[in-house]
Amino acid sequence: VQLQASGGGLVQAGGSLRLACVASGRTDSTCVMKWFRQAPGKEREFVTAASCNAGITDYADSVKGRFTIPRDNAKNTVYLQMNSLKPEDTAVYYCAASVGLRYQPRYWGQGTQVTVSS
To answer: Does residue 54 have a pLDDT over 90?
Structure first.
């Protein structure tokens, strides 16, 4: 499975940004999709996850109410819709594929930089 993330950039605080992650290859067994982020000098942290049919989602407390994880299975694409962005959301964002919501990712995409200016 290959994951290609895109959509990062520079945005002002309060703004919005949408990241996309396209999966290719044999995705059937690793269809749970997740987003993580890593800020400079910090550990990589979980942001959000969606079950295969998006019926179940999970969010880190720091992004609840601001971020969503829509997915388009016909396009093998999962998105990270980020609203009301804060400077503390600045990080490299990674998409990942897993066999379950409580499992560690099996596949990772390359990161995409999100910078939120104050």
So the answer is: no
